[in-house]
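In response to the reviewer comment on reproducibility (Comment 2.3), we provide here a single inverse folding case reported in full, input and output, so that an independent group could reproduce the run without further information from us. The structure tokens appear first.
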């Protein structure tokens, strides 16, 4: 097992060593895993390409490290503990041995349906154990998984399947989510009409609802399991072979497929999981994220299983059957580490303490937060009411692209400061730059957050478009990885993430590109142009504010609004629906035709008295008109 940091001095020593001798440091961590063949060199890199390779020449299979190597020492320990959507349904647990066999069986199913090393498999599934099993089964046979969050629309799913030319999709008949039943297979069927590369749609029976059946490609998972062996040798992978693709939004264009590779991702997710959460043998760890996001990949599946932990998966939502569900589960399963998003904390805070009070939260040792900046009020509510004032709260900053937690307190070790992600993990070298790219040194400073040295779990490329990876992350400040976040470093060196500085909105911890929402809205026949910005929202962190220009004055605003919401739901999914829509006659543009979003953001957040310089606008009068306008 990798080094487990025990004290702040230990952290400081290890951090200094990781900067002075990164290769020695990471070689030491990596040597604690099972490799089929040890690497020839620890690191080859340049950020110009970018071309980053960790553990060059090393051979492994990550599932041998998640499963096989634990069989002797903890075969009978629970690996995955699953809590269903409906509290009256029984939880299910898989021991490490059971999980090993389940993964082998699914891996054999994949192979029997023609899946080979390097093939892409799309997973569009509810939060059930079979999703984690499918992820690991792909990794076992060397297939590259692309998990798509099951809240995305059929159009968004089809785009992702086609971008990665997936050969197989794995889905369910339906999905229980709170009081709703989502027709998952119908959504997949609709998507597959435009996905010529899909040969098989493997369907898990979850809800038992009626589904349409296409015998040429649909296969029931329970039927495919018939007669399949529960042993499956793992495929030997190069450290730099792709492990998975995960799509995420950027400020322009369509979502990009962030690519992570086997060796470095394995080493970093285990190391960061153990140290940030200070996981002890026998603890029950619960991350409430969905496996459709990076948090679920790294800190529900891979990190915890690599560390031999008991990781909980929850199928449902925080407010079903009522707003006490999270706390009821914490009590029921004696959860020790609880990791959630600020948006969930704020939503539950708004429901009142009567939903917290009935439950015994005495098992909790560590609380975590991820996905967006946590505001003071939510931090203190979490601290006072869930942590009973005294539990460490780890505010973990990271991104889909970073693969693992980058800046965060280590629970109980790093001195906390509310709303601060505090200090970088060993091996992580953050720097702050100004708009010209000059490094801002010292403390009590602010600027743009970059990372100046590679870390093992960083993205390697964006699938099928390496130029885009270079342009988005490595060109703004040559020689550095640019995060897209603004940051402050306080008097003693603690980092506080301020938020995105690009045109990405963070809605309930989900990343949404303004351009994607605009493109969807523009599909409405009466919309000529639109501009989308984020604005502060009490629960979601940021809400979506859309300014639209119509060709003809709409006769019925209610209908227009409903149509726009429905188009966005169809093109992207319900998470991208605008909260506010305003009809305008013009947008503030520069003489070169660029929309000045800075102005639109100020109007949206009600600070239009501080518009700043508007002299470069083509027609300054549109600003007054927009400011005086009303929502539809
Ligand atoms: C963006 C990445 C990484 C898991 C979930 C989101 C924001 C993330 C924090 C935090 C302030 C945070 C950043 C980042 N973010 N964690 N602890 N404090 N902001 O992954 O969808 O790739 O989004 O989320 O703006 O760039 P993601």
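Designed residues, in position order:
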């Amino acid at each position: 097992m990798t080094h487990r940091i025990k004290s702040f001095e230990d952290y400081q020593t290890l951090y200094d060593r990781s900067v002075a001798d990164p290769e020695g440091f990471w070689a030491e961590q990596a040597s604690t895993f099972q490799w089929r063949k040890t690497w020839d060199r620890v690191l080859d890199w340049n950020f110009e390409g970018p071309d980053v390779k960790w553990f060059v020449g090393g051979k492994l299979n990550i599932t041998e490290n998640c499963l096989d190597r634990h069989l002797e020492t903890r075969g009978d320990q629970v690996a995955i503990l699953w809590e269903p959507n409906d509290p009256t349904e029984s939880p299910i647990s898989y021991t490490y041995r059971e999980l090993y066999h389940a993964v082998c069986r699914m891996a054999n199913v994949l192979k029997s349906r023609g899946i080979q090393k390097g093939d892409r498999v799309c997973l569009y599934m509810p939060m059930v154990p079979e999703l984690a099993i499918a992820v690991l089964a792909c990794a076992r046979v060397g297939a590259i998984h692309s998990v798509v969050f099951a809240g995305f629309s059929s159009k968004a799913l089809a785009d992702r399947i086609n971008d990665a030319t997936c050969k197989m999709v794995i889905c369910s008949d339906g999905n229980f989510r709170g009081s709703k039943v989502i027709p998952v297979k119908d959504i997949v069927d609709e998507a597959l009409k435009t996905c010529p590369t899909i040969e098989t749609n493997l369907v898990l029976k979850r809800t038992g609802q009626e589904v349409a059946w296409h015998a040429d490609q649909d296969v029931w998972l329970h039927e495919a399991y018939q007669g399949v062996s529960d042993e499956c040798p793992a495929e030997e992978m190069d450290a730099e072979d792709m492990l998975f693709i995960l799509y995420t939004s950027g400020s322009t264009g369509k979502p990009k497929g962030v690519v992570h590779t086997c060796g470095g991702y394995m080493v970093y997710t285990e190391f960061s999981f153990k140290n940030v959460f200070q996981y002890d043998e026998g603890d029950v760890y619960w991350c409430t994220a969905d496996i459709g996001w990076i948090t679920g990949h790294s800190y529900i599946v891979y990190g915890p299983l690599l560390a031999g932990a008991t990781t909980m998966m929850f199928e449902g939502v925080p407010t079903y059957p009522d707003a006490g569900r999270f706390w009821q589960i914490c009590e029921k399963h004696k959860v020790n580490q609880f990791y959630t998003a600020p948006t969930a904390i704020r939503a539950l805070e708004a429901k009142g303490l009567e939903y917290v009070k009935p439950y015994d939260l005495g098992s909790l040792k560590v609380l975590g937060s991820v996905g967006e900046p946590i505001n003071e009020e939510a931090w203190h509510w979490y601290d006072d009411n869930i942590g009973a004032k005294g539990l460490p709260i780890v505010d973990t900053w990271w991104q889909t692209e970073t693969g693992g937690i980058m800046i965060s307190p280590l629970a109980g070790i790093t001195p906390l400061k509310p709303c601060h992600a505090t200090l970088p993990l060993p091996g992580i070298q953050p720097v702050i730059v100004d708009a010209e790219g000059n490094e801002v040194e010292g403390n009590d400073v602010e600027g743009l957050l970059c990372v100046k040295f590679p870390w093992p779990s960083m993205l390697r490329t964006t699938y099928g478009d390496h130029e885009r990876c270079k342009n988005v992350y490595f060109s703004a400040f040559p020689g550095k990885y640019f995060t897209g976040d603004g940051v402050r470093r306080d008097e003693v060196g603690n980092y506080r993430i301020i938020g995105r500085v690009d045109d990405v909105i963070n809605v309930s911890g989900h990343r949404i590109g303004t351009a994607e929402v605009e493109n969807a809205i523009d599909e409405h026949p009466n919309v000529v142009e639109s501009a989308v910005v984020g604005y502060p929202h009490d629960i979601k962190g940021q809400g979506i504010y859309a300014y639209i220009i119509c060709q003809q004055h709409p006769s019925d605003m209610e209908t227009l609004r409903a149509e726009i919401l429905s188009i966005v739901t169809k093109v992207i999914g319900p998470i991208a629906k605008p909260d506010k829509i305003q009809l305008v006659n013009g947008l503030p543009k520069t003489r070169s035709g660029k929309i000045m979003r800075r102005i639109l953001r100020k109007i949206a957040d009600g600070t239009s008295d501080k518009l700043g310089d508007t002299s470069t606008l083509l027609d300054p009068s549109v600003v007054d008109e927009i400011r005086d306008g009303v929502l539809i």
